[in-house]
Amino acid sequence: MEHAQEHEARLEQTQRYCVERPIYNQELLQGQLHRRERTPQTLRQKIAHSCRCSSKKAKSHLYSFLPILKWLPRYPVKEYLLGDIISGISTGVMQLPQGLAYALLAAVPPVFGLYSSFYPVFLYTFFGTSKHISIGTFAVISMMVGGVAVRQVPDEMLSVDSNSTNVTDFLEYYSARDAKRVQVAVTLAFLSGIIQLCLGLLRFGFVAIYLTEPLVRGFTTAAAVHVFTSQLKYLLGIKTNRYSGPLSVVYSLAAVLSKITTTNIAALIVGLTCIVLLLIGKEINLRFKKKLPVPIPMEIIVVIIGTGVSAGMNLSESYRVDVVGNIPQGLRPPAVPEIQLIPAIFVDAIAIAIVGFSMAVSMAKIFALKHGYTIDGNQELIALGICNSVGSFFQSFSVTCSMSRSLVQESTGGKTQIAGALSSIMVLLVIVAIGYLFQPLPQTVLAAIVMVNLKGMFKQFGDVMHFWRTSKIELAIWVVAFVASLFLGLDYGLLTAVAFAMITVIYRTQSPQYRILGQIPDTDVYCDVEEYEEVKEYPGIKIFQANTSLYFANSESYTSALKKKTGVDPCAILAARRKARKRHAREIKAANELRKKATNDVEASVKHEIANDELPVNGNFASADASVQDVSPDEHEHFVEPKTNIHSLILDFTPVNFVDSVGAKTLKSLMKEYREVGVCVCIASCSGPVLNELTRLNFFDSTVTRELLFHSIHDAVLACQVKDKSASQ
């Protein structure tokens, strides 16, 4: 009782409106409105307008292409500089070990990871629009690059005599193999950069929307498994070939297990110790995030300790632990990538370009939303394209945004791209001055860094339960992306996942929700009659809604759902009528035959009486059979035909975004079928673009006029009621 009183009180306090207006159909509404005069531009005028240049337009384009010209002159030094310095140092400290470690994933010597952590990062400062993301090496992209490099230059391609014991032969073999793989990685960076640059200049930044979140998360989870498997041999200190392509993760795991007995115990102990230290450091940073001024740089601490222990105990010579090895001092001169490799790696470059852009723009959007600024997706494509393509001339491989470093850069007080520039300068100092100090660093330490950084990606397995509760279709996308990327490889897996995501879109439009609407009493609001008890249907009127557009893929399901939901099937009614007419015709025929037979019996009786010399009375014969009556055909002409108790059907077009030619023909055919059984079909809430499409498709004619289109469902309901009353009178 109290709940009802509270509800009534809320209703009384609610604002109300009362509008008195005509019942608007499309014909009446268009008659009262006046269209704005618009002069369409010709193609020549459009081209001339786009090519017209003014100082203001040139300045706008220059600022768009080089965002640093816009924000650097306004840079508040006192407010931002300290935060950017602390953030730049913290990010640079992370960038050093990750650059070395992710180079192993890319199947190139570690120094090339340092090059990739300098050139692209520095270039992004000038061309990027995000203030907080950290560009550089990233596990997923590095793994994709490594897969292509190993496929193009497998371990078996360069042969060395298996019986040779000359160390020089093996060193030459590894040197030649690595040089070829570097060329593949560099050319791949150049090509993926050119693709990103072209997509950005052509304003194709929207391509990232096709990589939906469940797809990206499933794909990156599978990539994490690939990365983890590839690092096992470094952690265990065993020698195995590196595999790429379908089932590469299975082959890599089998190769590691087959040689598990050759595990280098010293390498394993060092690696596990580093993993424990890194996990402890991450946990401390997480728990005391608010109390620590900057996160503890555990990765660089582990690298320094690992290098010191390796150099002090001479792990390379005494225990055969694999180390980073030669790190040349200084920068390399620029060199042109090997263009002849492009045909063999073109598809891989497209995949890397799109995945790299998707990663960067998704993180950039998160930070932009959090800090209240906007990013330009097309300019981000251009920036990444320049970073990759220009960086490739200086021997860097493909890069994108790193999630872990971006979070550190943002959380340590980074305000602008200056923080990224400072982190790249730190890497430059290491390359130029102290890079040789990291030569004794064990590779198992780098493997430990990579594995611990996968912790966040492995947490994405929790998405399965989340999507199970929220959306089974998104769960299917996640599972397909994960399984396909895991077993088919990251390149084919990505293509499979994108294709499956497209299929789910088609499935959703082919399997929409269909509803019958009714009125909330004394309002012009219409809701699902099956969902709410208060909603009532008007007698003789059905309101049908489908939450999808009407086109070739779902026109048949729309038709069948309409007939099923409304309970009115014109074809069934017409078939029943034909059947009733045939039955009626058979009844008339049987009655006529009965009358004819009765007449013949009377004639035979008369002849019999004449034969018995029975004379006529008053010149007429007596009735031979009073019981035989003439059957009037009029008595059989009146019969009840199968009829429907629905006189009007309203199609709610509120959710309809477009209609193609097949959909328009289906709609017109439906209106004709229902008209034949006495049901008037109206369309309500049809948007302007859909109305224009129907007009362009020649939907309207003498039988289907604009008077059947109404501004709202309530307009259509009132018009149908008026029409039914006038018809009954």
Molecular structure report:
This protein has helices at about 1-15, 25-30, 45-50, 55-65, 70, 75-105, 110-115, 120-125, 140-150, 165-200, 215-235, 250-260, 265-285, 300-315, 315-320, 340-370, 375-390, 405-410, 420-435, 445-455, 455-460, 465-470, 470-490, 490-510, 555-565, 570-610, 635, 660-675, 690-695, 715-729; strands at about 135, 400, 515-520, 525-530, 540-545, 650, 680-685, 710. The protein has 30 helices and eight strands. Among the domains are: about 75-155 and about 170-460, no CATH class; about 515-570 and about 645-729, 2-Layer Sandwich (Transcription Regulator spoIIAA), CATH 3.30.750. The protein has a six-stranded mixed sheet with strand order 4-3-5-6-7-8. It has a two-stranded antiparallel sheet with strand order 1-2. The model is unreliable at about 615-640 (pLDDT under 50). Helix 29 links the parallel strand 7 and strand 8 (about 710). By secondary structure, it is mainly alpha-helical. It is elongated. GO terms for molecular function: secondary active sulfate transmembrane transporter activity.
